Design the sequence.
């Protein structure tokens, strides 16, 4: 159970490291297995490299290096390599790298990209990140098998259902790398087909239902799992499937300072804010 963390900004749009730290400290005592920092939920495409590294460093200090996955993926091999080296220098012990984006990367370019990131990581585990819907770069199951040969420790697959995750699992060499889904609601399904778990954005503000799902799976308790999955479903629905404005509004309900968005999205309306407060009251 890995949570994908948001990044908080002040009223002028600058990264607010104090508020970000406060949000992370509110999660730190929960038994999350890890946190994914400066990814999609963290609005990484709106951050400078320096800001990304600073946010990741805050998470590392709060959660500890072994629970913190620094996202170093970039549009180019050059930038990803630089971010990787800088993250390692700053104490990162787990790294994740989205495929190159905007320009659809070729197979040869993807192999060079992950070869470079793994080499610059100097023995620190690197997790790939596949999200064709957002990056324009498609990775077939067969290609993921070849990318695993660059030395990846695992991969996060977003925007795909459990059937697609099963196809990726089947194409990986044995022993296979760790495989995570980005689908908050498919924890049970992906674990059932042999994946490691999920990386969940909604759990970064409403962790309890998702931890209940994890614990029910570990205990093999179908009754507890049914109850927990319904609570997780409600959390996802209330936040509009992890809409960034809704996630940050939940943080406000938890006492974290108000944060705007850098991503080009609308804020939450007063009516939606009131409905959200009612919907998540017993999930906080």
Sequence:
């Amino acid at each position: 159970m890995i949570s994908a963390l948001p990044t908080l900004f002040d009223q002028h749009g600058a990264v607010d490291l104090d508020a970000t730290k406060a949000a992370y400290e509110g999660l730190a005592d929960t038994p999350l297995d890890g946190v994914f920092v400066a990814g999609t939920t963290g609005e990484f495409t709106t951050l400078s490299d320096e800001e990304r590294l600073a946010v990741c460093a805050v998470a590392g200090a709060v959660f500890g290096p072994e629970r913190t996955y620094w996202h170093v993926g970039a549009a180019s091999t050059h930038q990803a390599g630089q971010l990787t080296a800088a993250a390692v220098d700053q104490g990162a012990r787990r790294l994740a790298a989205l495929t190159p984006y905007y320009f659809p990367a070729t197979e040869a370019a993807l192999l060079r990209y992950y070869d470079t990131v793994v080499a610059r990581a100097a023995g620190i585990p690197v997790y790939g990140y596949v999200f064709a819907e957002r990056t324009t770069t498609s990775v077939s199951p067969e290609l993921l098998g070849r990318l695993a040969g660059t030395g990846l420790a695992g991969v996060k697959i977003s925007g795909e259902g459990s059937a697609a995750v099963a196809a990726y699992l089947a194409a990986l060499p044995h022993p296979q790398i760790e495989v995570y889904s980005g689908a908050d609601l498919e924890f049970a399904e992906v674990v059932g087909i042999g994946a490691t778990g999920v990386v969940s954005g909604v759990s970064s503000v409403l962790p309890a239902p998702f931890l209940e799902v994890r614990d029910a799976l570990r205990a093999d308790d179908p009754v507890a799992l049914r109850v927990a999955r319904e609570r997780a479903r409600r959390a996802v629905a209330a936040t509009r499937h992890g809409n960034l404005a809704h996630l940050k509004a939940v943080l406000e309900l938890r006492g974290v300072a108000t944060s705007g968005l850098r991503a080009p999205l609308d804020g939450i309306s007063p009516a939606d804010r009131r409905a959200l407060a009612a919907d998540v009251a017993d999930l906080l």
